[in-house]
Write a structure and sequence with these properties.
Layout lengths: L7 H13 L7 E12 L10 H5 L3 E2 L7 E11 L4 E22 L5 E19 L8 E24 L6 E25 L3 E10 L2 E3 L8 E3 L2 E12 L2
Antiparallel strand pairs: 1-3, 1-11, 2-4, 3-4, 4-5, 5-6, 6-7, 7-8, 8-11, 9-10
Length: 235
């Protein structure tokens, strides 16, 4: 997907303005979320993905990029069975690696780090089959994620273009903002003042990298498993 100039902050502000114009038919909810983000594995990533390319000569596991994620979300009901949501979360992981088949002149390992950060802002619509007044509320939903991302590689690099495989220190950074679909589902247990629940989210997007990296794409997709803790207000 092409680079989007919309920032995470401006997307969230737009959602809040739009949401404030919607007449609420039930209590609104401010959620705090805590869980884990699991990027797609090797066989599920976009073609020409940089992590897949790096895995050919660096030692790491794709599961090494699993990491805790935290965020917040504002939910606004529009009728008894529908609600709009706007929220943001943060994911950041640094994975230490070594070269698979190459060593320094003193036979020591050549170390390099891969760092991946995302701040997705999700704008969603949920369907609640049991209705807003039920104490147990399963839900499904979908929307868009505006994903601010940053990917970096730093440490020692083998210069494969030199005849003697020279090792050079370096830092390479790419960043941007992309948009992709998000699908979610879960269940929550509610009272007049609080809610507690859990949900699963699927996120799909990818970003373009320049020729400083081993491949031209970075897959931003994955699964989020999270608990939700909400404060309900209004009416």
């Amino acid at each position: 997907m092409g680079t989007i100039r919309l920032t995470a902050a401006s997307a969230l502000a737009l959602a809040l303005v739009c949401g404030s114009a919607i007449p609420a038919q039930a209590q609104q909810t401010l959620n705090v979320t805590l869980g884990g983000f699991m990027p797609f594995g090797q066989d599920g990533r976009v073609d020409d993905d940089v992590l897949v390319a790096n895995h050919e000569f660096l030692v790491f596991d794709f599961k090494d990029f699993n990491q805790v994620t935290a965020g917040a979300e504002w939910l606004v009901p529009v009728g008894p069975f529908i609600e709009f949501g706007a929220g943001a979360s943060i994911y950041r992981r640094t994975v230490p690696t070594i070269y698979r088949d190459f060593f320094a002149s003193n036979d020591t390992e050549i170390e390099q780090n891969l760092r991946f950060r995302m701040i997705p802002v999700a704008l969603t619509v949920r369907v609640i089959p049991t209705g807003q007044s039920s104490p147990v509320q399963p839900f499904i939903g979908a929307g868009i994620a505006v994903i601010n991302w940053r990917y970096s590689e730093f440490g020692d690099f083998v210069d494969f273009g030199s005849p003697n495989l020279v090792i050079r220190p370096g830092t390479f950074v790419a960043d941007g903002t992309e948009v992709g679909p998000v699908v979610l589902g879960g269940v929550r247990f509610v009272s007049d003042t609080v809610s507690v629940g859990g949900e699963i989210r699927y996120q799909k997007a990818d970003a373009e990298l320049d020729n400083r990296f081993a491949a031209s794409r970075l897959d931003l997709g994955g699964w989020t498993y999270q608990a939700t803790f909400g404060i309900r207000f209004g009416r």
